[in-house]
């Protein structure tokens, strides 16, 4: 969890949180975020599920803009899971170096694609269980991939989603899987994917970890985070 996040008391919101019951508050918050960020979407460039899988692994601890710079040439060279699986590790490390943690990311991407070739005929599977069994793929990546590549419901919890949902007292835990469970329990499945990107957009553009832009925040009246500025 990012610094500056005040733990709230329990999942689903607190009695004193402004804006009604947890489902009502969440609905109202998402309505406002939808008006504020009508273009909320995955900001990674991709054309296929495989490209999104690789881009999402590269995006750990890196900006989407940087990942998009790197993948512009990477995706021209590596077109299939076989291409990645047969890549020279040292060459591949160098190609993704600027995304940071490049040794670990290279190891995961090459191993992940080798498994895709071995077990899925080179295709990216469509179930959460199969995705999280791939090297370098956790629940966040799996959920973001399911929604954006296959239009299958998934609520991905990254650092922005964790921070924003805690500050707004929609959840009372810093554990990503518990946050996912708490939100998914009160939000219809068809809204999970869009909600993910609305929270990410809000975290990136307004509710920053260190200096949230509270004065201009559209959710100000619904937020009682003690650190509100
Ligand atoms: S008021 Fe500030 S802390 Fe609350 S949601 Fe908006 S930006 Fe975040």
Summarize it.
This protein has 229 residues and is an all-alpha fold.
How would you describe this protein?
The chain is elongated. It starts with 21 loop residues before the first helix and ends in a 24-residue tail after the last helix. The chain is built from 11 helices and no strands. Helix content is 53%, strand content 0%. The protein folds into 2 domains: 22-40 and 155-222, Helix-hairpin-Helix base-excision DNA repair enzymes (C-terminal) (Endonuclease Iii, domain 2), CATH 1.10.1670.10; 49-150, Hypothetical protein, domain 2 (Endonuclease III, domain 1). It is mostly helical and 229 residues long. The protein binds iron/sulfur cluster (SF4). Iron/sulfur cluster is lined by residues 167-168, 206-207, 212-214, 217, 219-220, 223, 225, 228.
What is the helical fraction, as a range of percent? Answer: 40-55%
Text of the CATH class of the largest domain: Mainly Alpha
Ions, cofactors and other ligands present here are: iron/sulfur cluster
Q: Count the domains.
A: 2
Radius of gyration (Å): 18 Å
CATH superfamily membership of the largest domain: Hypothetical protein, domain 2
Whole-number average pLDDT?
A: 92
Please name the CATH topology of the largest domain. Answer: Endonuclease III, domain 1
**In this structure, how is the largest beta sheet organized?**
none
CATH architecture of the largest domain: Orthogonal Bundle
- By DSSP (H or I, 4+ residues per run), the number of helices equals 11
Q: Tell me the strand percentage band.
A: under 5%
Stretches where pLDDT falls below 50 for ≥5 residues? 1-15
**From N to C, what is the helix and strand string?**
HHHHHHHHHHH
- Overall structural class, as computed from helix and strand content, comes to mainly alpha
Q: Which term fits the overall shape?
A: elongated
Q: How widely separated are the two ends?
A: 20 Å
Count of individual beta strands: 0
